[in-house]
Amino acid sequence: MAIKFRVKLEKSAAETIPMFKKAFGVDCLSDRHIFRWHKAFAEGLEDVNDENRAGRPSTSSSDDNVKCVRDLLNTDRRLSVRLISETLDITKTIVHEIVSESLGMRKKL
Length: 109
Prior knowledge:
The chain is mainly α.
């Protein structure tokens, strides 16, 4: 929002960078990122939230995938995350997320 504020004041990215470095020190955005955000706001960007993109959905733990994993585990609760992943063609990370978070299952020791 600070960069957007500087754009509204008609300050250049080159003028904004030293102010950011002074204010934020080592936590400052890189010059490249400041230039990129400055340009985006100057071109009319108003919303800083991610825009929808074509391609793979942001998460593969959809209701359908949760149901498929649940159904597979109901046939054999000893299946490994790797085997479920290979069987359903879902990444191991997503399968683990579904098993532990969506289904609330834990590994017994």
